[in-house]
């Protein structure tokens, strides 16, 4: 990866003109065992990405000490992305009902180019010494082109006298896995307008109330890893290619209280999503990016920090989250779930994956001087979460129970933090915490729909580390 940023400031009277020029370039190559088992099924899957981004921003800012202060600017970004994906079906398949897949591969090539230009402005006006209002907006125009081609190739060990020829048996077997040779390209051009408004009122020097509205958007694009055309009539679950932009409207009210010893923040929010972009697994090998139509989240968040004395500080945070899909008729069914919309299951009215109702943390920090130039420190911390579903298809078999994860840190270092030695313990109670989960690729295919297997990624178990920091 290569990343470079050039910042330049020019004083224009009391105003400041700022230029930010950026360049990013990265390349990725990886070989993956994507079947997640010890069997040699799909062990030679090779993927690559080649990405380049150039950006330029110009903005002007007012002095900042007047009743009305503002910032405005323009931003341009150009990106290019190339992706290759080689999925190798190993000779193991000779011993399965999918004999025709042995020593075959599907090779995918994807490319994308985009140009984005944005114009933005934000201004804050102090109506009184205690009351402020902020208004702002950002206009985006983005154009993209994308193309994806997938070819099915046979290796020297594949069945048949002429490996270069793809016979109907091979084609039919791939179609049973929702894979079809294809080529597709497209263009999109999108405009978005994202306004914001905020009002703040200082009740006292220590207490402030606020209310805000903000709209955010995420541009549409093209599905990189779809295995068939969205218009296909010869596979069970057609693939995807083009998806639209996503929009979120957020309303928030809250208060902020801060003194020398105590700080408290409380907020309540409600966010409504339109055309939410979602990655849907087809139950075999494909992940299709689509717009889930609608969702809403709402909740309350609170955090506090209390300096009990010069040696001990206590902090805590808690969040309540309510999530509901308001319109998502084409979700993936989990194992043995009966479809209610063709081959799909409706998620409307259901909670999304990885959205615990309650979460938060507690922290206690103690520090004390030792002698004239050393400092001793102790930290105890706990993270907690209520239960949640870990699989994107909302399979209840991937339910993660609520947990409390305990950590600690004991340190000794220089009084000015020039160096520190610390013993750090994480997940001391050895909680088994599922971060994400899903069905194994091909699991129901090999069992003919009579069985299922799962894979999951878990948080680290109990681990102890010795840490040394030095500043120079």
Characterization of this structure:
This protein has a 17-stranded antiparallel beta sheet, with no helix packed on it. A two-stranded antiparallel sheet has the order 9-10. A two-stranded antiparallel sheet has the order 13-14. The model has no long low-confidence stretch (mean pLDDT about 90). It is globular and about 75 Å long. The protein has helices at about 170-175, 445; strands spanning about 1-10, 15-30, 45-60, 70-90, 105-125, 130-155, 180-200, 205-220, 220, 240-245, 245-260, 260-275, 275-280, 285-290, 295-305, 310-325, 360-370, 375-385, 390, 400, 405-415, 420-425, 435-440, 455-460, 465-470. A hairpin with a 4-residue loop joins β5 and β6. It has about 475 residues and is mainly β. It is about 5% helix and about 60% strand.
**Biggest β-sheet, characterized?**
17 strands, antiparallel
| Distance between the first and last residues' Cα | 26 Å
User: Looking at the structure, what is the overall shape?
Assistant: globular
Order of helices and strands: EEEEEEHEEEEEEEEEEEEEEEEEHEE
According to DSSP, the number of beta strands is 25
Mean pLDDT: 92
* Poorly predicted sequence stretches spanning 5 or more consecutive residues: none
Q: List the quaternary state of the chains.
A: single chain
Classify the helix fraction into a percent range. under 10%
Count of helix runs = 2
Strand composition percent:
over 45%
Structural class by sheet pairing and helices: mainly beta
Evaluate the radius of gyration. 27 Å
Subcellular location: Cell outer membrane
Family: Belongs to the TonB-dependent receptor family.
Keywords: Cell outer membrane, Ion transport, Iron, Iron transport, Membrane, Receptor, TonB box, Transmembrane, Transmembrane beta strand, Transport
Protein name: TonB-dependent receptor
């Amino acid at each position: 990866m290569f990343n470079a940023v050039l910042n330049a400031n020019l004083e224009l009277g009391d105003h400041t003109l700022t230029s930010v020029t950026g360049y990013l370039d990265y390349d990725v190559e990886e070989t993956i065992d994507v079947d997640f088992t010890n069997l040699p099924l799909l062990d030679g899957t090779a993927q690559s990405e080649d990405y380049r981004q150039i950006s330029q921003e110009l903005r002007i800012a007012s002095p900042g000490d007047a009743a009305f202060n503002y910032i405005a600017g323009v931003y341009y970004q150009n990106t290019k992305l190339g992706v290759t994906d080689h999925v190798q079906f190993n000779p193991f398949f000779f011993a399965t009902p999918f004999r025709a897949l042995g020593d075959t591969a599907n090779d995918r090539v994807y490319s994308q180019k985009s140009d984005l230009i944005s114009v933005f402005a934000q201004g804050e006006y102090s109506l009184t010494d205690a009351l402020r209002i902020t208004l702002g907006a950002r206009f985006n125009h983005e154009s993209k082109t994308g193309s994806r081609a997938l070819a099915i190739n046979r290796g020297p060990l594949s069945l048949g006298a002429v490996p270069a020829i793809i016979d109907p048996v091979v084609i039919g077997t791939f179609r049973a896995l929702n894979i079809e040779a294809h080529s597709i390209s497209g263009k999109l051009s999108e405009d978005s307008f994202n306004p914001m408004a905020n009002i703040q009122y200082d009740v006292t020097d220590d207490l402030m109330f606020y209310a805000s509205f903000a709209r955010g958007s995420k541009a549409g694009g093209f599905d990189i890893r779809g295995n068939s055309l969205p218009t296909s009539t010869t596979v069970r679950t057609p693939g995807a290619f083009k998806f639209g932009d996503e929009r979120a409207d957020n309303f928030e009210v809250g208060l902020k209280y801060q003194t020398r010893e105590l700080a408290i923040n409380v907020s309540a929010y409600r966010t409504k999503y339109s055309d939410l972009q979602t990655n849907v697994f087809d139950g075999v090998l494909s992940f299709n990016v689509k717009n889930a139509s609608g969702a809403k989240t709402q909740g309350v968040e609170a955090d506090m920090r209390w300096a009990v004395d010069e040696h001990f500080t206590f902090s805590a945070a808690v969040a309540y989250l309510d999530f509901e899909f308001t319109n998502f008729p084409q979700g993936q069914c989990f194992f043995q779930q009966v479809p209610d919309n063709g081959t799909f299951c409706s998620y409307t009215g259901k909670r999304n994956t990885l959205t615990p109702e309650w979460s938060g943390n507690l922290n206690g920090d103690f520090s004390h001087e030792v002698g004239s130039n050393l400092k001793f420190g102790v930290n105890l911390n706990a993270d907690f979460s209520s239960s949640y579903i870990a699989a994107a298809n909302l399979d209840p078999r991937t339910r993660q129970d609520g947990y409390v994860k305990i950590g600690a840190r004991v340190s000794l270092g220089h009084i000015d933090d020039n160096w520190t030695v610390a013993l750090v313990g994480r997940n001391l109670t050895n909680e088994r915490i599922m971060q994400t989960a899903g069905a194994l690729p091909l699991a129901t295919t090999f069992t003919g729909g009579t069985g299922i297997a799962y894979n999951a990624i878990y948080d680290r178990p109990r681990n102890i580390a010795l840490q040394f920091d030095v500043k120079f």
